[in-house]
Amino acid sequence: RRRRERSTGAATATARTMAHAMALEWTHGFSSTLPDSVVNLSTSDSPTRRLAYVAAHTLVVQTSDASDPLGSSAKQFALRGHRSAIISVRASDDRAVVVTAESGPDAKVIVWDVDELRPSRTIEGRHPSGVAAADLTPCGRWYATIENGALDRITKRFSQTVRVWDLHDTTSDTPSFVGVTPKELADDKQTCVKFNPAAPRELVTNGKRGVAFFCSDEDEEKDEDEDHESVSGALTEDNVQKLEKRRSTRLRAYAPPVRAGDLNQRVADFTSSAFVTVPCDGSSGALTGLGRCVTGTAEGDLVVWMAGGVPPGGPGAFEARGMRETDRRAVKIVRAHARGAVTHASRVAVGETFADADVFLVTGGSDGNVRFFDVELRLVAWFDGLDAGGVTSVSFVKKASSESAATFSNGVKAGKTGALGDGDEKTKAFAAPDFVVATKTSLVYSLISRDFETLGSAEAVARATLLARGAMEPAVALAAHPTDPVLCFAGADGRVWTWNFVTRRVVRRVDLTKKGSKPSSYPTCVAYRRDGLGVIVGTRGGELKALDAETLHETQAMRFTPDAVTRVACSDDPACAYAAAADKAGGVSLFQMLGPIHEPKDGADPSRAFDFVGKHRSHAEETPCVGLAFKTSADGESVELASIGAEGRVARYDVEGSTAEDGVDVLEVSDVALGGEAAGGDARPTAAAFVSAARRERYESEGKRRSASSASDESDSGSESDESDE
């Protein structure tokens, strides 16, 4: 019994240790291509810079000293809880409420307390197909999501559901308002949703070719048509909608027509939307349709949506779409960015209270420019020339308190109807909160708004402070240096770079494609020599490249296959004498390494880094190689290579017995070792690696010890049984 207690205690301790065997310490980069993935948590007068940003499944909170944001003072805190990649992060003006939503099935919505670094609320079971986009009102009360959508079993058409929660109501996770995208948008997935802050009972969504508006009339009651319908079974879109029909007020949805003839020009694909509204007198009850709404396009334009006027095509055309004469329609197009797409659109209010605020439309472009427009869509400030890639996020310093508590029931009741630029205000100096700009190339800059008035646009941009630097592009492969704290990355846009994970700085960066002029050189995989004296890179065009590990200078390139290279590996023998590559068609190629890879000095010709030995097609194109690894024997006398296919086939090669004359020498091919598809099983390998000799010996000794302990426990159990029988 004592032995069993000791064994159980040891197992518990092991489990406790293994539960914390890996802890996220730092993230290099963030989800920079995700719109609005960075939130500014800083205050303008604080010596500390504080950001929250999305990194795949994780919300990262980063703090640093304002005087040295990239130095050792930087700290990161990982807020985890999502099962799939985060698709949206939104924050209230005072940053008291930060909400994230994920894109995967049965998606979670998590409300975070970023000061305490913990979740304060989780909403589950409402998004069977995942979240496509989300938004939060400036006051932090109302939160909206639009689901990825599904095919309706009755209507046989694709639709997406918009849901609005009152986050002040903590007693239920049922949304307060629910709407479904109009049938006109069945072929156009909506990827953006935004509130009208002045009247948050109105929302806008957009896809590439269509825009929808959602609103709740003041006298509309909850839909009770299906109060007695039974809902049972698994979580599905149909069941969720049935439950919500009982308890949620329905949002009316309509999709205004977009015709080039009405606007006198072609309309490019839509990108992002925002409302540009000032607080107005809501006593008339006309709570929706207030002010302007704009939708950016891929050609840098803003399509302006307003209510009233003569409906294009006449009242009959509007009625056919379920629209009313007072609904919004496209009235004009305004150019915002001359040299690229509108990649960001948001609204910022400047003032002590929401009612007295000046309102600006803020746009960011793929040209790297940030621009401010008044409510009449007149350009009032511009921060051009930030040569750091397309703008994906613009986020302002947090307010001390949020007084923009507009409600669905009463709207906003204030007397201001003017806008910056009207009457005597034309000469009013530009004033806005300081802000950060995040770019597609994973850079985050801090800019001071008042610099535009005092120094001008060019100098204001020149004085921008770099707060964070991540990967310039999505990483498609990485390799760890065998001895130094350095990782080598291959990027989707053609770059290879090294990053020191102690100093957290990029060491070197090189573009293998020469700015896209060599499309066959896009990197797909990367590996270090065992001694760290060189890097080999496989490419999309079937090349193997040799790079100096320190300078990333290319010393040799060889095209050995017409297919993309998917795996590369270097041998683990002391001389690092071999390298191997697997391609998309299932072939495995072997190379003889000719010594360390160094950039030539004083203009000398580079030395050859490797020679081609041979190639063997061990796997099929449908089930290519997913694992490639070398293994040197304990006595160092022989080197073996193994490749694993997606079908479960294991191939072993005699490396030293392979020659350029006879090709690659195959030792063994097994289809049954892993029980995969090749053997009629269901195992599907995704990666493989050899276990080191030292670790294998430790595993074997631990296995023997456990076997002995198990045998002893069985012996004790038998003794106790005998005593019980007696």
- Give the assembly state of these chains: single chain
Number of helices: 7
Radius of gyration: 31 Å
Low-confidence spans? 1-18, 219-235, 280-286, 401-426
The termini sit apart by 18 Å
| Mean model confidence by pLDDT | 85
Give the biggest beta sheet.
5 strands, mixed
What fraction, in percent, of the residue positions are helical? 10-25%
Strand arrangement across the biggest beta sheet: 9-10-13-14-18
**Total beta strands:** 47
3D structure, described in words:
The structure is a single chain. The chain is mostly beta strands and 726 residues long. The chain has seven helices and 47 strands. The strands form twelve sheets. It has a five-stranded mixed sheet, covered by helices on one side. A hairpin with a 5-residue loop joins β26 (370-373) and β27. The longest helix has 33 residues, at 693-725.
